[in-house]
Design a protein that fits this description.
This protein has a domain at 3-215: Alpha-Beta Barrel (TIM Barrel), CATH 3.20.20.70. Helix content is 39%, strand content 14%. It has helices at residues 21-25, 33-44, 74-84, 102-111, 127-134, 139-155, 176-186, 205-208, 210-213, 217-226, 228-231, 284-288, 303-329, and strands spanning 3-5, 60-64, 89-94, 116-121, 161-168, 193-199, 237-240, 255-256, 264-265, 282-283. The structure holds iron/sulfur cluster (SF4).
Length: 330
Amino acid sequence: MPDIPFWNKCNNKCVMCTNLGEFAAQPPSRYGLKRQIEKLERYLKGFGRIYLKNADKADFISLTGGEPTLHPDFFKLLAYFRKRLPETDISLLSNGRRFADKGFTERFLKIARPPFTVAVSIHGSSASAHDRVAGIKGAFSRTVKGLENLFAGLKGGGGAGVEIRLVLHRLNIGEFKKTLAFLLERFPAPEFYRVVAIHYEIEGLAFENHKRLALKLSASAGTVNATAGLIAKFPDFRLYHFPLCLVKKELRSKCRITLPAEDRIYPPKCAGCRARKKCPGLMLEYYKTQLFHQIKPIHTVSQSNTFTTLNLLTLSSLLSACRARIILLT
Ligand code: SF4
């Protein structure tokens, strides 16, 4: 199942947000309780493309925003989704600030029965580092308090799992190691949560702010590689959007393909790479930045096949990317 925008307003102003300003400007009634329930029911009856992103994913849904927890009928809507999708893995993407309210967290954990994950983004190891990215003073302390409440609820047998997301870009890549150390110090039982490091996506506000954010995948991966020792302390650690050839061998099993095929591309250099099947390749928007020259095939197939394979793979990647764009435009 797809990404479902639960609510279009947010109380953070993250510099790398993948939404455009137009999204938040839409009338809130488009995301109200009644409209959301109607949409879900139409989707479950198979009525066409109700949700745009990841529409082909069958086994989980992501509730996104804006900030989903700000929805005026958040609990009613959440309970409805859980009731209609009792077995589906639900992931709630949040800035974590509302969980700073203990009562809110306790109520949430009663409704969010497994399989359920709340994914909270942290942008640095200190208030100044995090708030600079989140665009709101005081955001860090609320987010950290929110995580504390979630972990306290989990110990009491609460129903959700916790994922901590680190979106990496030029403004916070220098914080990566310190942020992991901070997590271990503040939340010293990493077996209770998953950590995901994500190379930022060039979309929405992140596209508009790209001059400030621009970071080569090789630089991002270099920092991740240099932090492998610390990463090993987290039993469940994942990497999103990293081509396998840029990541240390010991970290490659942590890489996941999360974007749909139409949002990824394998440039000519990938021809003959034996890792291609399991590799996320490059994000299409990143490919357009021409910052990807460091990729290199892992154990290439025989040279005699390379010319044909190279042309076919590139052509096929470009065609599927173009086809996807055309579908979205029509
Ligand atoms: S060469 Fe291409 S397919 Fe191979 S690991 Fe690098 S990005 Fe992935």
